[in-house]
Amino acid sequence: MSTVSNVEPNGPDLAVPPEHAPHAKRPSGAARYLSLLGVAPFFIFTLLFLIAPTVYLMAGAFQNTQGRFTLDNFRQLFEPEVLSAYWISIKVSTASAAGGAIIGLLLAWAAVLGRLPGWIRPTLLTFSGVASNFAGVPLAFAFICTLGRVGLVTMLLHRYAHVNLYATGFSILSFWGLTITYLYFEIPLMVLIITPALDGLKREWREACDCLGGTAWHYWRLIALPVLWPSVLGGALLLFANAFGAVATAYALTGSSLNIVTILLYAQVRGDVLHNQNLGYALALGMVVITGLSNGGYLWLRARAERGRR
Fold first, then answer.
1. Which domain CATH number covers 186?
2. Which end of the chain has fewer CB atoms < 10 Å from its terminal CB, N or C?
3. What range does the domain containing 147 cover?
């Protein structure tokens, strides 16, 4: 006698296709539109404060004061004063990005992998989240009070270490003064960027290296750094773009004593002497291209780093 199962055709032993499962119902049209309504503020904000201003300055860059089409604004970008402003901005951004990337990487490494007390990591990350957004006039005022001619650190060095900081040629209004000021928000930003990458280093990789007779130098040179370098380089590119577009801190700190492109742009758009609004649009468009390339490189390297960790 053959045995026949009493399980019914639609019993629990048969797999139910996901599309027919009760919990897999597709959302209705109204629910889908309601979900889109939740992200509508993001798209409206992006349209009003990113896309529309970019399109407006692109149109203005190809116009003269009478509103006619011209390429003269881009020709003026190659004048010595403008090229010098771009070059100084690139140097300041590169120096602050390099310093911020190196110091931020070391700080994050110490907090994540340095076997420090447990309270240091959350404290560092909390401070980094606040300091990375601290810029503008308050930051400039803080550094003037700290490293100005009568700043706290300047006077302490002169009184107790007998070092006249300004006698060495240093000035808070100079290239290095602005670079050091930018480091205040560049270093915390790098800490926030690189910490998830350091968390992605698996303990099994270090244990496998130790089992094979490798040293710490072998681990970092052959395993950790090849995995981390896209994140480090991408973070440095993001720091470069962040510093290149900063205007409030530089203007409040140096005024017109340092000819960087953001201050020149401000003078062209809002100034009384150098007022040429359309040239300012061309300057801004050049900045958009440079920062766009930096951000594009960062996004590509971040995607490469995520693929490498997987």
1. 1.10.3720.10
2. N
3. 69-309
| Measured distance CA(253)–CA(256) in Å, rounded | 9
- As a whole number of angstroms, the distance between CA 187 and CA 140 comes to 16
266-282 tens-digit pLDDT: 888 876 566 788 999 99
Residues in the chain, total? 310
d(Cα 213, Cα 308) in Å, to the nearest integer?
24
In Å, what is the CA distance from 215 to each residue of 201, 222, 223, 235?
16, 10, 11, 27
Positive or negative, the Cα torsion across 244, 171, 186, 126? negative
Note whether 249 and 73 are within 8 A (CB): no
Of 215, 179, 1, 198, the C-alpha closest to 98 is 179
**Structural domains of the chain, count:** 1
Question: 55 by DSSP, 3-state: which?
Answer: helix
**Which of 74, 20, 79 minimizes the C-alpha distance to 283?**
74
Mean pLDDT computed over 176-202:
94
Question: In this structure, are residues 135 and 107 in contact, taking their beta carbons and an 8 Å threshold?
Answer: no
